[in-house]
Amino acid sequence: MPPAVPPGGQYWDFNVNPASPVPFDEPGWDVQTYSRDRPTWINPEPMDAHHGMDCAGYPSQHRITRYDQMVFRCRNHIMTAIQAEGYGAVALTPDRLINLSAGTAVIRFDISTFKSSNRDWVHVWVSPWDAHLPLPAADWAPGLNGTQRDGLFVEQTANGNLCPRFVRNYVVTELTCEDWRPLSDRIVLSATRRNTVEIRITGNRVRVSMPNDSIVFSDVSLPAALPFTQGVVQFTHYSYNPTKCAPCDGSPQVANTWHWDEMYIAPSIPFTIIRADRRYVDGAGGTVNFRSAAPGGARLQFSAFGMEPDVSFDDGRTWQRPVVAAYGKFTHPEGQYWTPMPAGATRVMLRPARALSWWGEPTSWIARDFSIWAR
Q1: Are the C-beta atoms of residues 126 and 233 closer than 8 Å to each other?
Q2: Does the structure show a pLDDT above 80 at 31?
Q3: 122: number of CA atoms within 13 Å, CB side?
Q4: Distance of CA 42 to the CA centre of its chain
């Protein structure tokens, strides 16, 4: 049965039951995929993901060898699966902003609890429109550009618990959270059952719980009021050499598959996400086409590694330097972009332009995961 979604909310049930795993290509969702190491830019490290080739449940598995297979559908829910020896991530963003202007807002979703590696985990992010990142990451992460400038995120800790963090001007404050007991001491961890997680947010308070299991991880005031009333919501899955400790705690360690379902955001405000016809551009550059034209006030979102590109929205007649997204960590040769796009434009051309720091291969670069956003 679908959950009782509060007024003004948006609900996703992902009810598609294919005969075999199908890549997730839901309209209105932005999908970012990332692996840091150069040999994995075009194709990811292969891994065995949950569900068989006939979508049979775990322990049945199937082989993943392409980026578009890393987010997939089976049995009326979606999965994320990634293995990255260096550092990798998958970020899913729906086309709904959480609306905090009228009191308490809710993010609710079902997720599996089984973990096959301590180096494989999930986060949920809430960020202001102009300060979100395509690929946010904790400030300690060995790749990407750290956190958003302001906002909140809920981090899955090593114990499996879900603990809130407050971000103000890139400084992360860990909020009070009951994390001393492993989640495995409270519930039976499962790859086939999905437990409900609820995040309740006001302008100055956050509560994180598993309401159906009578677990409250945190219910705490924020150090300061959130400086925004509408937030981008992102569901992320991270991988950092998940097989490094094998065996660890007496069990083998392999990349995990997370199962997601029954998501809703309430109250919410719709915005536009337009996906592209290709995942990446590299080498001498190329053209990315979109499924429809950019609305007024649109932004082009993408990430790049190795070089900073120039972009053209008029078939190469003029070129410009794209606007960098708001991030505070510049220690890696990668960039994330959030640049204005003219109304009516249906494509963008990219070419390599400027080498980024700390990169020993100045002719190697990639730009990837393009989407148009507008509100």
Answers
A1: yes
A2: yes
A3: 24
A4: 19
Give the count of beta carbons closer than 10 Å to the beta carbon of residue 326.
18
CA 247 to chain centre: 28
335 CB-near residues (< 8 Å, 6+ apart): 145, 303, 304, 305, 308, 324, 356
For residue 241, pLDDT over 80 is answered with yes
Tokens of 330: 């510049």
Taking a C-beta distance cutoff of 8 angstroms, is the pair 346, 263 a contact? no
Residue in 27, 26, 88, 33 with CA at minimum distance from that of residue 66: 33
- As a whole number of angstroms, the distance between CA 257 and CA 278 comes to 25
Cβ partners under 8 Å of residue 161, min gap 6: 177, 178, 179, 181, 182, 183, 217
Q: What is the pLDDT of residues 339-371, one digit of tens each?
A: 999 999 999 999 999 887 778 787 899 999 999
246-278: b (≥16 Cβ within 10 Å) or e: eeeeeeebbbbbbbbbbbbbbbbbebbbbbbee
**Nearest Cα to Cα of residue 154 among 134, 179, 119:** 179
pTM over 0.90: yes
Phi–psi pair at 83, nearest 5 degrees: -125, 125
pLDDT of residue 7: 79
β-bridge pairing 366-374 and 29-35 = unpaired
Q: What are phi and psi of 131, to 5 degrees?
A: -130, 15
Q: What is the pLDDT of residue 1?
A: 58
Token couple for 232: 């981008």
